[in-house]
Design a protein that fits this description.
Elements lengths: L2 H11 L16 H11 L4 E5 L3 E9 L5 E9 L5 E8 L2 E9 L4 E5 L2 E2 L7 H13 L3 E10 L10 E8 L11 E7 L1 H9 L6 H11 L3
GO molecular function: hydrolase activity
Protein name: NUDIX hydrolase
Pfam family, one: NUDIX
């Protein structure tokens, strides 16, 4: 299948991601999509896919009747992502991890993509074990966040996880270590710009409302 055929197939499989709106209606008629691609010289539809993502280029209608391309990134597994706030003996655990997109290191709470066939809580437990080598004694769901609605179709479930034992030193997936901060220190690091990860900042806001 070409990129437009794949796109139309995805629209039938996941109609919630192709919901129509008065604000920016989607063009979903095959002839119109092919005509736009030919006239504009742009690739339309699913232009790239990996094990984790689809890069999608939609054709949308402006209020003046003109059409234009608008891209977005979708998780391949539509169940969403998870963010885990690990808590152990009065301190919150953050990973130090190299982020390829930034070409730099960041501190942040563990997080991961959704996985088919398991619940968000089960996925959170799996990520916690993989990235800190421990299990949680208690879990508390804190609701959803949407990290970047300008480009991503992704939401993430946030969980507070009280650990049953001290985290281990795991070195994989660009993880180079972790740090434990109490609540006051965590706020200071955010204030001083040492923590900039959007998932972590949103999860911090969720936890702060529980206090």
């Amino acid at each position: 299948m070409d990129s437009i055929e794949k796109y139309l197939e995805l629209s039938r499989k996941c109609p919630e991601l192709f919901a129509q709106s008065e604000e920016l209606p989607l063009v979903l008629e095959p002839k119109e999509l092919y005509a736009f691609a030919q006239k504009s010289g742009k690739r339309i539809g699913i232009v790239y896919e990996s094990h984790y993502h689809f890069m999608v280029v939609d054709v949308v209608c402006a209020k003046d009747g003109s059409t234009f391309a608008y891209e977005r990134l979708m998780n391949r597994v539509m169940g969403g992502a998870v963010v885990i706030v690990p808590y152990y003996r009065g301190k919150y655990i953050l990973l130090r991890q190299y982020r390829h997109a930034l070409r730099a290191y960041q501190y942040g709470f563990p997080r991961g993509f959704g996985e088919e066939g398991i619940s968000a809580k089960e996925n959170a437990g799996k990520e916690l074990l993989e990235e800190l080598g421990v299990k949680a004694e208690k879990w508390k769901g804190l609701g959803k966040i949407v990290p970047d609605s300008g480009a991503l179709s992704t939401s993430a479930e946030v969980f507070l996880a009280e650990l049953s034992e001290a985290p281990q030193m795991i070195r994989e997936e660009e993880i180079v270590g972790h740090i434990a901060l109490d609540w006051e220190q965590l706020g200071e690091w955010i204030r001083d710009g040492k923590i900039t990860d959007g998932f972590t900042l949103a999860a911090y806001a969720k936890v702060s409302l529980q206090k």
